[in-house]
Specification:
- It is a single chain.
- The chain folds into two domains: 2-146, no CATH class; 179-343, Histidine kinase-like ATPase, C-terminal domain (Heat Shock Protein 90).
- Helices cover 61% and strands 12% of the residues.
- The protein contains eight helices and seven strands.
- The strands form two sheets. A five-stranded mixed beta sheet has the order 2-4-5-7-6, covered by helices on one side.
- The longest helix is centred in the middle third of the chain and has 67 residues, at 112-178.
- The chain is rod-shaped.
- The model is unreliable at 349-361 (pLDDT under 50).
């Protein structure tokens, strides 16, 4: 704090000295080209006493400018105060300048009529500069508040989109459990235990929007344990995860709704065994995530954008703007392919009490 204060004083001294040099050089050149002979150092001394005198008065003038701003609400009262003070400051500056001239330079006093109007103008320039600084500070504060509000709004919207997925996923899972409670109580009990693990992981990451891909895959693996119990002989899951992508930054809960969609529309309707494949790779500075199944794919009249897909699209838009790609397409060999492409960034620090695991290196 003390260092910053000394820096400000030093910067102020340099500024006033620069003003003195500027006007001293102007006066000296005017004398020189008019044929007069005058020492530059003498002119500089006079200029320094003039502007250092203003330097002594400047803090008080700027304080008055802040206390009585020329604003629309009370400009008339502030204007009257500044008019009265400007006259007083002009007289005070004339007195101070004469004292400095007599006791430091040994010169005679300057007539009031010679400097009074100049002092008035200088005072009002300082007041105007103070008003300009106040307006600029308020403008910057307004910009900062606007940016903070925009960030808070975006965070709230992202959180709402994430929370939209939770009941959607929870109700689907509970519905699956309810069908097995009487049919196979043991499997239903195991599914409830896995569901509690998933809910715990979700609560540990409240407010988190991005995690390591390895952590996202851990959550996905817990979800797949439940789905494997539902379809023990019909669901095959393949993970083709590039090792260099495990530390990449990925949206939290981005894969689960896509895999759920693949199982619901690609695996559940059929009686034979089906495959869901999850892939990741880094290509040209982009993280590419892919979920594909070997089901029927999208029919011409079909609408694949349910709650999971719609929320995923909205979250990607909020997180990355135009710097992302999301594609739904039918694979040539059959089935649906969902591809997400986002910037590849390493997640050095991430939220969450658990580190990534779930069998991924």
């Amino acid at each position: 704090m003390l260092k910053r204060r000394w820096s400000r004083w030093l910067l102020s001294l340099v500024g006033w000295t620069a003003l003195a040099l500027f006007f001293a050089s102007q006066t000296w050149l005017a004398y020189k080209y008019s044929g007069g002979q005058v020492s530059f150092w003498l002119v500089l001394k006079i200029s320094l006493t003039e502007w250092y005198g203003w330097a002594l008065l400047a803090p008080g003038i700027m304080w008055l400018g802040r206390q009585f701003p020329l604003e629309r609400v009370r400009w008339l009262g502030s204007l009257a105060i500044h008019l009265a003070v400007s006259v007083g400051v002009s007289l005070l500056k004339w007195t101070l300048n004469n004292l400095l001239r007599r006791h430091i330079l040994g010169f005679s006093s300057v007539s009031l009529s010679f400097v009074f109007h100049q002092n008035l103008v200088t005072y009002w320039i300082m007041v105007a500069a103070t008003q300009g600084y106040l307006y600029y500070s308020r403008y910057r504060e307004g910009e900062l508040r606007t940016a903070q509000l925009s960030a808070q709004l975006a965070q709230a919207q992202l959180q709402a989109l994430r929370m939209q997925l939770h009941p959607h996923f929870l109700f689907n899972t509970l519905n699956a459990i309810s069908t097995l409670v009487h049919k196979d109580p043991e499997i239903a009990d195991r599914m409830i235990a896995r569901l509690s693990d998933l809910l715990r992981l979700t609560l540990e990451n409240v407010g988190v929007q991005e995690v390591r891909l390895a952590q996202e895959l851990e959550f996905l693996e817990r979800y797949l344990e439940i789905e494997r119990m539902r379809f023990p002989d019909r669901l095959e899951v393949r993970m083709r995860i590039a090792p260099e992508t495990l530390d990449a930054q990925a949206p939290y809960l981005i894969l689960q709704p896509l895999v759920e969609n693949a199982i619901r529309h690609g695996i559940a309707p059929r009686s034979t065994r089906g495959t869901v494949e999850v892939r990741s790779e880094c290509k040209d500075g982009r993280l590419i995530l892919e979920v594909r199944d070997d089901g029927l794919g999208i029919s011409q009249n079909g609408n694949p954008k349910g709650v999971g897909i719609s929320s995923t699209l909205a979250r990607l838009e909020k997180l990355y703007g135009a710097d992302h790609k999301f594609e739904l397409r039918n694979a040539p060999e059959g089935g649906l392919v969902v591809t997400i492409e986002i910037p590849f960034r390493l997640m050095v620090e991430y939220s969450g009490a658990r580190s990534a695991g779930g069998g991924f290196p």
